[in-house]
Design goal:
Two copies of one chain form a homodimer.
Chain A lengths: L6 H4 L9 E7 L5 E7 L1 H10 L3 E4 L4 E4 L8 E8 L6 E7 L15 E4 L2 E4 L7 H4 L2
Parallel strand pairs in A: 1-6
Antiparallel strand pairs in A: 1-2, 3-4, 5-6, 7-8
């Protein structure tokens, strides 16, 4: 993907904080892996490098997903929505683990009755991910 | 789903504006339909009524999805993420159209080179949806 012509970027309406939500979806299965945030720079870097780069709100800096865990996300396809303020990334998730808890997806709890129940397996012990 | 015990609701970290992002995903195909926003009340109403109710930031009021278009979303499953600040709704989309443009999904534009290209068909003329 070319990053020289950045008119595509100007079509995106970043919020007051300069961020938009970015959904990462497994390109193969369609499973939703996580939602993070992107600013203009992280989006440019994502397209340029072909790997997901987010903006970490907690650390207030660019976050190359997988920089510590090794669980990078290879960009397969990039979409945006009708209101031009949400990004969708279809990705190949390295090792099939996107969540810092060692699960495939961050959305591992389902509401059953009035309780959140864990319904996804831990694929790798987080201690081994971040050792 | 019971709404009497609301401890499940207290686990969700609504943002400073009282909102969290809510992703709607087609329960059958796994297609991502849209992203909207929810406050506490809209989430309670979603669980209570079994149909997606969002908070419209542009109109600054509760938005029962489909109230004008008829394109309601039946709640099949509710999840939240590891950071407890994003909601995922698996839904059955009435008429298979979630977008106000008459398309199945709001994410109908894909980045190709440096251009956004429409890659999803209009299933119904918006003029006929909102007449």
């Amino acid at each position: 993907m070319s990053t020289e012509d950045q008119s595509w970027l100007d079509e995106i309406h970043f919020g007051e904080n300069g961020l938009v939500p970015a959904i990462a979806q497994d390109a193969g299965s369609g499973k939703i892996l996580m939602l993070a945030w992107m600013n203009r720079e992280s989006l440019v870097l994502t397209v340029k490098t072909g790997e997901a780069v987010y903006w970490s709100r907690s650390r207030d800096k660019l976050w190359h997903k997988g920089e510590e865990s090794g669980h990078t996300q290879k960009l397969i396809e990039l979409r945006f929505d009708c209101d031009e303020d949400v990004i969708l990334l279809k990705v190949e998730q390295k090792e099939g683990i996107s969540c810092h808890t060692g699960r495939q997806s961050c959305f591992y709890r389902r509401l059953q009755g009035s309780k959140w129940v864990e319904v996804e397996a831990v694929l790798k012990d987080p201690k081994l991910i971040y050792e």
